[in-house]
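JOB MANIFEST
job_type = single_chain_structure
chain_count = 1
residues = 190
[input]
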Amino acid sequence: MISAQQGVEFTTDSDDPVKYGNIKKVYSIWLCTEAAKTRANSIEIYDINRRFLYGSNSDSPRYDILNAIIIYISEKHDSEKAENGLIRMLTYLFDEHVNVADKVRNLKSVYGLNVTKEVESEVTDLCSYADAIENKGIEKGLKALVHSLKVYVKDFDELYTAVIKNEDYKKVSREDVMKYYCETETPVNS
């Protein structure tokens, strides 16, 4: 980020007395959307401070130019229990059980945000992306499960019954399981 400012905010010219003094403050914000219970509903900040272990000097360099902020959201996505307004809003926004239209309506009515078409599109993209990632993970897990069960269970009906007993795959169709059941596994190169 500092190098991106090169030639825009400051110069490296030896005649320039300011040089790096014009570097802009940088905030790195991380959203942890499924934080462990011990960290849930909290916000941490990490910054750089100067301390002298021995002696002192009269220069006053800037140590405030880098800040990292981590926002931990409960993995249960219970926005009602979040006391902080920002955490409550983000918890609601990342709740996969709430549809896009309700999220947009809530951002407007409850949080008073000016939700433009662009913001609405970004909320839609966020939800679509999250769904796509989750579906990809479920798909990979289903494939691995079917391939591993196939080693022990040769009858398709028995294998399908075993798959849908798993909580994550109880709604999977016979066709989806059959797709991986009939798939030939790629041999491992030796």
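[summary]
The radius of gyration is 26 Å.
The first strand starts at residue 26 and ends at 35.
exit_status = 0
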